[in-house]
């Protein structure tokens, strides 16, 4: 749900490369770099859900971790309420952790098996200075109810729950400190389809009731469509297209976005756009447009010159030479 158009988080020209450390790289004696995220810019407005979609290997999770400063960027800025997070020291960033929370993909490995649900939920409150046990317990029980669990679950251990229930616990743990922004990294991809819809409905209700700003990351375009106000399409670490959800689904402009959409079985008779081959290695990204090796419309210009991400319609940005 959109509240206004005031950006609470701005990502400016963010890039992240890693040093390759494989056997071949060591034998060659040359330092090679894996370019995971390259010059990505977008913003989150207060109270909206921004969906980030792309194939596996497109850099979505690295981008999330870099925004949260769990991984330091190679270059660029992350502005939270006009404060550049990349310039903060560790202790300064620690104070902002409660405002920027991450909900993990795997509900099985993200919970401490040695602690009860109550202890798991109360730990963030304890870390952030809530000393009274009664207050911590009251808040934990209230959030359990909000995510569809019961009071008795407070005393149980993670192994006693299903995957969907564990993800509800993970959501409650992230939201118990009243964050401004929640970053959700593939939060339903490890769950059965029937459970996915339940979790998505819970997230929509929480987002509305708590006025949360969300960055929702997924590879499933239909999931992103259901929950997002705006969508960014990422490919090999670069932003290909961005628009509000209705506009993007009404008329996707970039060939990669069109190919993603055509792969969804939505009952329409639209012709499927095939993608050739696999996503290239970030060790050796293609020259020019990074998508040209798989694009059915690529020309010599695409191989030689990188297209700029530009606004072609109100609120819709596309990185393609031939979109007018």
* Shape estimate: globular
Give the low-pLDDT segments. Answer: none
- Mind telling me the CATH class? Alpha Beta
- Strand sequence of the main sheet, in spatial order? 6-7-8-3-9-10-12-11
Oligomer status: single chain
Strand proportion, as a percent range, falls in: 15-25%
What is the level-2 CATH architecture name?
Answer: 3-Layer(aba) Sandwich
Q: Averaging pLDDT over every residue, what do you get?
A: 91
What distance lies between the first and last C-alpha atoms, to the nearest angstrom? 30 Å
> If you consult CATH, what is the topology?
Rossmann fold
In percent, how helical is the residue content?
A: 25-40%
Our count of domains comes out at: 1
CATH superfamily: P-loop containing nucleotide triphosphate hydrolases
How much is the radius of gyration in Å? Answer: 21 Å
Count of β-strands: 12
GO molecular function: ATP binding; ATP hydrolysis activity
Keywords: ATP-binding, Nucleotide-binding, Transport
Protein name: Oligopeptide transport system ATP-binding protein
Domain ABC transporter: 9-261
Which properties best describe this structure?
alpha/beta; four-stranded antiparallel beta sheet; 324 residues; eight-stranded mixed beta sheet; Rossmann fold; 11 helices; 23% strand
Can you characterise this structure?
By secondary structure, the protein is of the alpha/beta class. It has a single domain, classed as Rossmann fold, CATH 3.40.50.300. 32% of the residues lie in helices and 23% in strands. The chain is built from eleven helices and twelve strands. The strands form two sheets. The protein has an eight-stranded mixed sheet, with helices on both faces. A four-stranded antiparallel sheet has the order 2-1-4-5, with helices on one face. Strand 7, helix 7 and strand 8 form a beta-alpha-beta unit. Helix 4 (117-127) packs parallel to helix 6 (163-175) and helix 6 packs parallel to helix 7 (193-210). The protein is globular and about 65 Å long. The protein starts with 6 loop residues before the first strand and ends in a 6-residue tail after the last strand. Belongs to the ABC transporter superfamily. It comes from Amphibacillus marinus.
